[in-house]
Amino acid sequence: MSGNNHIMMVARGVVCGKCRHRLSIPTTNSTEVKCPTCNNMNPIPNYEQFANKDRSIQKLIVKAKEKISGNDLSSSQKPDSLNKKPSPLSSSSETRPAGKRALLIGVTYKRKHKLKGTINDVKSMRELLILNFGFKEENILVLTEQETEPELIPTKKNILKSLKWLVKGCQAGDSLVFYFSGHGISQPDFEGDERDGFAENICPVDFMTEGMIVDNDINSTIVWPLKKGVTLHAIVDACHSGTVLDLEHVYNRQEKKWDDNSPLSGNARKHPDGGLAISLSACLDNQVAADTTKPQISASKPFDVYKEHFVL
């Protein structure tokens, strides 16, 4: 850039655009200053205008950092809730949930052990249930970290509470769906009822401090209460999830038959109260989900997997 009108700011002074002589800015309200060396007239910068621009740039930088770090709390950036208000959990404790209802859980673990696709998985499952299987929005309970209501965050406490909601007051004709997308972990069984010596667990968002949810607890919460005529379909997209519902029969794909998975301890109960539970898991108990594309099927009682159609 060149020309008689070109100037440079130097520590709240100006440099002549013609001879490069440094000039002092007069204290008057003048808009120009004359160079004593070459007599060139130089415009005086509006420093307040530059300061305002600088502040605006700083605000943009701060805003960008907030978005990158996930701390942007502006209402326009908050994702829409996947629960219809009021949420199913907010209903009166005396009211029996609808006969066709679902619990969908997606955990991203934002701070550590982060997963990227779990919330999209939940959105897709929710859409599938509504559009293809006739579930109503108000009868689908969704837990994700994107929800703003504290009771809809997938903590251990909230997940256990929601599992109880899913089977509450179930009766003949009810169709229940449990979906979980997140981390799964296998650990040694200390109760002596697992045939392979390991218990399967799902990880809530706060599992590092509150612990995991063990397969025995999942079984006693959503399998035991299933009365005759009630069907539960569970879809668990997690590692080591083959028998995470602890159902008594596991399908053997290679031999095309059902294997016995009943507890070794005769005192341990794993069966429902006359109802049917079917579980589709992402992998076997000793696998991670990324290593296979073949789900593990387990059930409370055997059925013909090649003829039976899943009706939700």
From TrEMBL:
Low complexity composition-biased segments: 84-93
Record region (Disordered): 68-97
One Gene Ontology biological process: proteolysis
Pfam families listed in its UniProt record: Peptidase_C14
Signal peptide region: none
Domain Peptidase C14 caspase: 100-294
Polar residues biased stretches: 71-80
GO CC term (a single one): cytoplasm
InterPro entries, sorted: Caspase-like_dom_sf, Metacaspase, Pept_C14_caspase
MF GO annotations: cysteine-type endopeptidase activity
Family membership: Belongs to the peptidase C14B family.
UniProt name for this protein: Peptidase C14 caspase domain-containing protein
